[in-house]
Amino acid sequence: KKSSIKQKKISNLAKNLELSQKNLQLSDSYEIQVYFSCSLVGYYPATLAFEFKPDLQTSTTFHIVRYIEAQCMTTLGKELAPEAPYKPRSLPPWVPVTDCSIVDGLRPDGLSVMQLKNEVQLKPYRIPDYMNQLIRSLKQPGSSSDKREYLLETPLCWKNYAEKFKLLLYLEELQMEVDIRRYNIPNSEREDATMVRDPVNKKLLILEVPGVSENRPSVLRGDELLVYPVGQTGTKYRGYVHSVQLDSVKLGFSSQLLDFFIEGMKFNVEFTINRLTLRIQHRAAEFAARYELKPVLFPTAPPSSYEKPSLLKLRLFDYQLERNPEQYAAVQHIVAGSSKPAPYLVFGPPGTGKTVTMVEAIKQIEYTDPTCHILACAPSNSAADLLCKKILEHVDKRKVFRMYAKKCRHISPQDECSNLVGNSYVYPAKEKLMEYRIMVTTLLTAGRLVSGNIPIGHFTHVFVDEAGHAVETECIVPLAGLLNPESGQVVLAGDPKQLGPIIRSPFAQKYGLGVSLLERMMKTIPLYQKNEGVFDSRFVTKLIRNYRSHPAILKVPNELFYDNELQACADEVLRSSYCRWEYLPKQNFPVIFHGVTGVDEREKSSPSFFNRSEVEVLMDYVRKLLQGQGKKGLAMIAPKDIGIIAPYRKQVQKIRKALEKVGKDLKSKTMHHLKVGSVEEFQGQERRVIMVSAVRSSPNYAQIDQQFNLGFVKNEKRFNVAVTRAKALLIVVGNPRVLRTDPTWNWYIHKCFSTQDNHALFIA
Asked: Which Gene Ontology biological process is one annotated for this entry (predicted)?
């Protein structure tokens, strides 16, 4: 209906612009009036071409072309207008490093109680001078014959493993330093910084840092930064972060600074990166070679004399898994150790239950093997917490230990089995840690176990959930220096078709740092590839039963990424709860593509994009969902059942601002429960209703998106995650003309048009 309305309006506009031939004399003028009427939000451009002839008999012509545009928006759209014109944040001028003294500050109390001794050295791994020359060579290909450039271009193999990852990590660190410098003060927004004393603790100073709550810049408790009074360069003062507030940080400095500090003093500020995580990864790559992990990292087919281990008949703790043959077989093979020394891979597409499969295998090993010691890891604390929570459902908490890093935040400690005691993180002695049957940590925190010299081979099994999210050097932290490559069992679970690790350096991304260990193995190791269309179940299991989404939602990603093997097994009542929604273009097909032509906008110094037209369309759907709940046979729905995904931080902010207004209009007290976030924030999550804002309305920025791994265009993994979060209703809002420049989106839109489900495409 709306598509026909739009065509009619365009037709009327064309009629209004039809001009009869008109004779114009010198100095004559002719006024053209254009009428525009529209009730659909969006941006409507048009081109006017005026043809001129010297006289009516000649064929010689020339043209004058003018472009006109109209934008239809609501009051809400006007309220979301840019707060200030966009002005890119410039890098502060580079100042040569000069000799200066650094006065150490006051560290926060109670960060950690370290009973675990550091027995294994963690070297500094400083960036060597030759990296500057390498960067210059990479920026001008062919300008030199740098052997390190050749190393980067050579495919990863065991021979170059440690050296190549060393270069990639250095490249990543250099980019991190460039990125953090953008927040140094002075910058394009602030000439200097002032601090005030903390009214509660006079030994602390408060520095305003707008954006710190959104990790711009990323600052955690215990991090450090440098300040020095404007005009002075001989001495810098190191401040330690004691707490992070909404738009400020509380810093602990030495008494030397506090003694001369007065309110209103002007300072320069330098932010610094935390190198600890990079150093841990450097050591892991080095130790992988030292402890000969080649059979684990580059596994080969077993000899012909290889005797298949017998598979036990298991009684599962989660009895529902017994009805899923793929999950049951995966648990059997992991318990039997059928892949050793090669890792066992659990390939888990969206909603197929890879985490519960991993947890069941952990429980079975703990139950059947009295000599086992299991290390269960994940890239993030939230994923590690989920592992621990599910393990504790059937395992005595006295056997489990959840170890957090001292800078961890946003945690939900697991009762009495974690190292968080009061406000401090307690790291027990090595002997105590070795008593636990199951330890749960993040990948990087497992580096503390290496430093603590837990004996190689103590952990008989190492599980890594969400392995596709981590760079390979993260993934090997719990292996290099802890795993016996001959007797240990490694299990990796994840989906190489979903989001991989976040990489800052374009060069590091180009040369492979963005490829996870899981993805590399599935792409390059024959053991993990299909043979005659089938995976070898001794080494890998692909889970194919999706317990999340309606078949219509699953259809396109299933065809694009999963060989059309996924089976829709979600609860029939839940997945069909919006099949008869009155706003569906086609009943029983709960997918809407709402086309809208908006404008890519930016504001202030933020490089992030937003699209007001798409926000307005999204809010219209939010109103329809919440106002129509419980009517006409529809299930009740609350804001917590809805999720909105946008690829840009600024669009997320604008949507949240719009939701505040909608919440007031609807008198909703729970609108803040409606989650709005990036694709990365939604990976591993699900909602009954998901709305996706593609944002991009101009093809001019597609190359930037691809280069810096932004947006949905040119990023099939981000697309896959976005469209597979919904259980019962998926609404995608975007500009089809721009999205069609991307092969994945073009296929998605084409399938909507070309099948019997073509009503799913709903162009405004």
From this structure: regulatory ncRNA-mediated gene silencing
Buried b (16+ CB within 10 A) or exposed e, 264-302: ebebbbbbbbbbebbbbbbbbbbbbbebebbebbbbeeb
What pLDDT, in 10s, does the model give residues 276-302? 999 999 999 999 999 999 999 999 998
Percentages helix, strand, coil for the chain (3-state, rounded to 5) are: 35, 20, 50
pLDDT in tens, 386-440: 999 999 999 999 999 999 987 665 455 555 799 988 778 899 999 999 999 999 9
**496 with 574, same domain?**
no
* Cis check: omega of the bond before 217, within 30 degrees of 0: yes
Q: Which residues of the chain have pLDDT under 70?
A: 1-21, 90-98, 110, 143-144, 213-214, 407-415, 629-635, 702-711, 753-764
User: What's the CATH code of the domain at 642?
Assistant: 3.40.50.300
Helices in 210-275 by DSSP H: which ranges?
A: 255-260
Torsion over CA: 442, 443, 448, 450 (sign)? positive
Do residues 386 and 359 touch, judged by C-beta distance below 8 A? no
Dihedral sign for Cα 325, 330, 335, 339, please. positive
- Residues contacting 284, CB < 8 A, separation 6+: 447, 450, 473, 474, 476, 477, 479, 480, 481
Closest to 601 (Cα-Cα) out of 653, 557, 560 = 653
CA 311 – CA 305 distance, rounded (Å): 18
Identify the pLDDT of residue 707.
59
Domain that holds residue 618: 551-763
pTM of the model: 0.89
Number of domains in the chain: 4
Neighbours of 53 (CB within 10 A): 12
Rounded CA separation 695/327 (Å): 38
